[in-house]
Design brief:
549 residues, alpha+beta, Immunoglobulin-like, 4 domains, six-stranded mixed beta sheet, 32% strand
């Protein structure tokens, strides 16, 4: 659709700095975790390798653009619905690139940086004015056109902005952009210029609107509204305004509960006083909309009379879908709601109503495995897919998982640490062979502090030693005990294995539990192989069993 969105990022600097201040990515980890080598012209040079001495960790802000709908009338665009989300990502590069203000390139020829943390939503963005430049589909608008932009805020309120269209590039291949200023980020609808019905101001200060009521809401008391086409509209408010009809026909009537007077082309609209009445006037009731989380809910009317049709629009945030839209009257009784063309419609009763919308997480698409050595039909395929989707295990490279590779003690502890969402740790572990700054240091410190793992002695952990099947059972058993597993009756589950005499005494209770819970199974030859090493595929299967028992 577009080339994305550009934004004046000065007002985002404080938020990005706040995220950077929370940084727990050490320079050593930034290098070791990614085995980073920067490539120039596809040639490796030792001088270009990142080290803890020359690495710089950079937080970059950007705007993620998600298009939710594009409407056309025939071959002509009418509106574009989208959501702009402030994001940031973390990249590693050499200090020299930051000092020289070089453009950071994370892939392809000229790569001089690598992404070490993918894009994350930039939370707590302050209310401020942000200038946005957004690429438009070809043919959506012509140069210098003014476009009306509807912004639905998180509390359900609606604001309108005016964007100016510009073009860049040679004729015939020029790209089209709209530039506007917003005070926040949430769903937007950009309307084609053909939808404009009224405007306020002139030149660079001109604001355009797709409904006459929106123009009435925006115009200052005593200001002028210009009709851009024939108008037949009801109006509400409390102000006086002049209508410049030019060659258009303008017919205005008072909305229910309001009075409207006209003197030449000057109109005054005001709310009726309590107890006042006029011929044809009906009673209007408030349409209250509760603020929603993970999306916005808005009604097309703030007040409505009995029997009036009210339309509710529920717009989920990225990653969410509409769960339900509920309407109740002043006594809490349900009002029937009908879904129609993605919107929700109800008939106004003879009382005020409250509209509540709820949203639920979108069911994620199945995770595609990037590993060439894990294929459908392998006995471990589903287990690897599950462990990868849960973020418990990653590959040994971008395209390999090494299912038959040996799992070491540092790896198994790191998987458990990830399962607990990598909680913060204070201080280092007591083990002298687990130095600070390694990819497994925090995991070992956390597991030791929670008595999930023991060392070979007081100071030796053996992080690179292959983990045996009985060691892994003991570690998982202690983990489950920390998570609340108590008073386990350990039935005799080991007699059927011909090599049960090889089980170490400390591991017998753990293996009785693991085998009884079908977390660890015997090998194809009927043995338990307690002192044998566990492969990465076996560990993936064991964690799948553990988390789905």
């Amino acid at each position: 659709m577009t080339d994305g969105a550009a934004i004046d990022g000065k007002n985002l600097e404080a938020v990005v700095k706040s995220e950077a201040d929370k940084n727990n990515i050490t320079k050593t980890a930034a290098v070791n975790n990614n085995a980073v080598t920067i490539y120039n012209n596809n040639k490796t040079d030792n001088a270009d390798k990142l080290t803890a001495d020359n690495v710089a960790i950079v937080y970059q802000s950007y705007i993620d653009v998600t298009v939710s709908d594009v409407e056309k009338t025939g071959d002509t665009y009418s509106q574009l619905s989208l959501e702009l989300i402030p994001m940031y990502r973390v990249v590693a590069t050499k200090q020299d690139n930051v000092t020289s203000d070089a453009t950071l390139v994370t892939e392809g020829d000229g790569q001089n940086a690598v992404v070490i943390q993918a894009g994350q939503p930039l939370n707590n963005v302050p209310v401020n004015n942000y200038k946005v430049k957004l690429a438009l589909p070809s043919g959506f608008a012509s140069k210098d056109a003014k476009l009306s932009i509807k912004h639905t805020k998180g509390n359900g309120s609606v604001e309108y902005y005016t964007g100016t269209v510009s073009t860049e590039g040679e004729e015939g291949s020029a790209k089209t952009y709209v530039t506007f200023t917003t005070n926040g980020f949430s769903p937007f609808v950009i309307y084609a210029a053909s939808a404009n019905v009224a405007s306020i101001g002139d030149g660079e200060n001109e604001q355009v609107f797709t409904s006459f009521q929106a123009a009435v809401d925006a115009v200052e008391n005593g200001g002028t509204i210009k009709a851009l086409k024939n108008i037949d509209s009801t109006v509400s408010g409390n102000k006086t305004f002049t209508v410049n009809a030019e060659s258009n026909t303008v017919t205005l009537t008072a909305a229910s509960g309001y009075n409207l007077t006209k003197n030449d082309n000057v109109y005054t609209v005001s709310r009726q006083h309590s107890g006042s009445s006029s011929s044809g006037t009906t009673t209007s009731y408030n349409v209250n909309v509760n603020a929603a989380t993970n999306g916005t809910v808005a009604a097309d009317k703030k007040t409505a009379s009995k029997g009036t049709t009210v339309t509710v629009t529920a717009s989920p945030s990225k990653g969410y879908v509409v769960d339900a839209v509920k309407v109740v009257d002043k006594d809490g009784k349900d009002v029937a709601v009908t879904e129609k063309d993605g919107k929700y419609v109800f008939t106004m009763p003879a009382s005020a109503v409250t509209v509540t919308g709820s949203f639920k997480a979108e069911t994620p698409a199945p995770v595609a495995l990037p590993f060439t050595d894990v294929k459908s039909g392998n006995w471990f395929y589903d287990a690897v897919k599950y462990a990868y989707a849960q973020g418990l295990m990653t590959g040994t490279s971008a395209t390999t998982f090494a299912p038959n590779g040996t799992m070491n003690r540092a790896m198994i502890v790191t998987v458990l640490y990830r399962l607990e969402k990598s909680p913060a740790v204070t201080g280092a572990s007591k083990f002298t062979d687990v130095p600070a700054g390694q990819w497994y240091s925090d995991a070992v410190a956390w597991a030791a502090a929670n008595k999930i793992v023991n060392g070979y002695d007081e100071t030796t952990f053996g992080p690179m030693n292959a983990v045996t099947r009985e060691q892994m059972a003991a570690i998982l058993f202690r983990y489950e005990q920390v998570k609340g597993l108590e008073n386990v009756t350990l039935e005799e589950n080991l007699n059927r294995f011909p090599d049960q005499n090889k089980i170490s005494a400390y591991a017998i209770p753990a293996l009785q539990w693991a085998v009884g819970q079908k977390i660890i199974n015997g090998n194809a030859d009927g043995t338990l192989d307690p002192t044998g090493t566990a492969t990465r595929a076996q560990v993936a299967q064991i964690f799948t069993n553990l988390l789905n028992k």
